[in-house]
Amino acid sequence: MLSDANLEILFTKARSHKSWLNKEVTEDQIDQIYNLLKFAPTSGNCCPARFTFIKSDEAKERLMPTLDKGNIDKSMNAPYVVIISYDTEFYESLSILSPHNDAKAGFIGKKIKSKIPPSLILLFRAHTL
Ligand SMILES: Cc1cc2nc3c(=O)[nH]c(=O)nc-3n(C[C@H](O)[C@H](O)[C@H](O)COP(=O)(O)O)c2cc1C
Asked: Which helix (H) or strand (E) holds 95?
C-alpha cells in the first residue's frame, strides 16, 4: 500500500489546474511520464491508445480550432498538450501484445466502437513534474 503522503499526491489532494508555472518541461520528463503511463492496463492488453505530445506554437495553433473555447487559453499556455487518441487498427499488434491467444482474428473486419471521443486533450500539470 502506498503511504498516505503518496496517496494524497495521486488522489485525495490532487486537483486539476487551469494555469501553469513558467517552467520548462523536459523531453526526459515526457519520457518518464510515457514510460509510466504505457503500463496502464487495457482490455486483453490491446493498448489502443496513441499519445501525441504537442509543444511548438505552430502545432498548438493547428490544434486550436478543435478546442472548446474554455480550453483554448490553458492549452496554448501549457508547456505541452497531449492528444490521446486510439488506433482503430490496434489489433495489428496483438500478435506481440497478446501472443498467447489469437485475439487479432476477433477484431478483423469489425467496426471498432468507443464510448469516448477519439481524442481527449490533457493539459499537463507542470507543477507536479
Ligand atoms: C463531463 C466533464 C467535462 C469536463 N471538461 C473539461 C474541460 O473541457 N476542460 C477542463 O479544464 N476541465 C473539464 N472538466 C473538469 C475537470 O476535468 C475536473 O473534473 C474538475 O476540474 C475537477 O477538479 P479536481 O480535479 O480539482 O477535483 C470536465 C469535467 C467533467 C465532469
From this structure: helix 94-97
User: 19-56: per-residue pLDDT in tens?
Assistant: 999 899 999 999 999 999 999 999 889 999 999 999 99
By CB neighbour count within 10 A (0-12 exposed, 13-18 middle, 19+ buried), where does 36 fall?
Answer: exposed
Q: State the distance from the centre of ligand 1 to the C-alpha of 17, rounded, in angstroms.
A: 10
Q: Could you give the CA distance from residue 103 to residue 93 in angstroms, rounded to a whole number?
A: 10
Question: pTM for the full model?
Answer: 0.78
Q: Please give the distance, rounded to the nearest whole angstrom, from the Cα atom of residue 49 to the centre of ligand 1.
A: 21
- For ligand 1, atom 28, which residue shows the shortest CA distance? 16
Ligand 1 atom, smallest distance to 15 CA: 26
Which atom of ligand 1 lies at the shortest distance from residue 18's CA? 11
